[in-house]
Amino acid sequence: MKILALGNAVIDVTANIGDDFLDTHEIKKGLCYESHISEVPKYLDLIKALGVDVSYSAGGSAANTMVCIAALGGESSFSGFIGDDQDGTFFMDSIALYNVDTSNMIIRSGDETGKIFILVTPDCQRSFMSFHGASATAQPEHAHIDMIAENDALYIEGFSLYSPQGYPMYKAAADQAKAQGKLLIFNPCDANVVEEKNTAVMDLLNRTDILIANRLEALAMTKTDNLEAALAALQAMNKKCSVITDSANGAYILENGSITHCPIEREPERIVNDNGAGDNFAGGFLYGYLQRNMPAKEAARIGHLCAGYILAQTASRPAQKDDLKNLLSAL
Is 215 a residue whose pLDDT tops 80? Predict the structure, then answer.
């Protein structure tokens, strides 16, 4: 089962900073904030003035998930909007390295490829500043019809809802997926997205076959204040499968009227930061559940394995192309 993802195509700019930087710039830890691409030089100068190292890597939540699937040996495709610039070329080359199908990328001449600033505090938590650039031009494309037809499932992520036409794009794509009998998978990606784009999120959730979200996103979607109530509310939606991650407490599978806890069996060797851990959990789970036809609980084990690997890395993708395959073989 080949999976197509529509999402943000961005460059991750990662820096280790102190909590005082977040306080000064009114950034709430663990959440994502949106700004215009023209603000990138300003914030880059502010971070470099701290005297910390800054690293650059290709990112984007849905793209990371598709990379994880391909790195495990699965089939995945990604479509996003990039600029006709050096960063766009870097993004394309990076995702193609893992054998993700990039034939559906859309290049916006005259626009700059988007950036995500990932600010990692001493407790290894990350906060985001999003500068969408070319990704902000996301809109319904006739090309999406053919892309969806060539795949078996469509994966959409919440960050693109910040683009002015992101919701219409996803709504049209979801309609096409349903009309063509494809599975629809939704990952809201951030509690801020759920709160700020609630109407769009809830509409997409209602259309979704498979939901992958974390604890905070689940609470925001169900407007509850505890995980037990959130799980019950999501279970009542009768999805094919919902997976709710809860950091070190593992994940909960909602399927066939039951809730199953899936603890983490193998702790990561170390934690550098948690950027990309959720993306790679999603990739590992979908690879096992949809492409290897595993029971959801067994697929969650692969998700935990992939997330644990990424927690020990600086970047949000595998350091080497075959790292995840090697881990999987030892599972």
Answer: yes
Return the ∠ at Cα 29 (arms to 23 and 35), rounded to 5°.
80
As for how many domains the chain has, the answer is: 1
The residue range of the domain holding 267 is 3-7+60-110+141-329
- Which domain CATH number covers 200? 3.40.1190.20
d(CA 284, CA 303): 4
Burial 276-312 (b: 16+ CB within 10 A, else e): bbbbbbbbbbbbbbbbbebebeebbbbbbbbbbbbbe
pTM of the model as a whole: 0.90
- What tens digit of pLDDT does each residue of 144-174 get? 888 999 999 999 999 899 888 899 999 999 9
| Domain assignment present for 249 | yes
State how far the Cα of 246 lies from the Cα of 310, in Å rounded to an integer.
Answer: 16
Q: List Cβ neighbours of 140 (8 Å cut-off, separation of 6 or more).
A: 165, 168, 169, 172, 173
CB atoms inside a 10 Å sphere around CB 41: 9
**Is there a domain that residue 31 lies in?**
no
**C-alpha dist (Å) from residue 241 to 59, 176, 210:** 26, 21, 5
Q: Mind giving me the DSSP string for 207-235?
A: H-SEEEEEHHHHHHHHT-SSHHHHHHHHH
One-character DSSP codes across 28-97: -TT-EEEE-GGGHHHHHHHHHTTT--EEEEEE-HHHHHHHHHHHTT--EEEE-EEESSHHHHHHHHHHHT
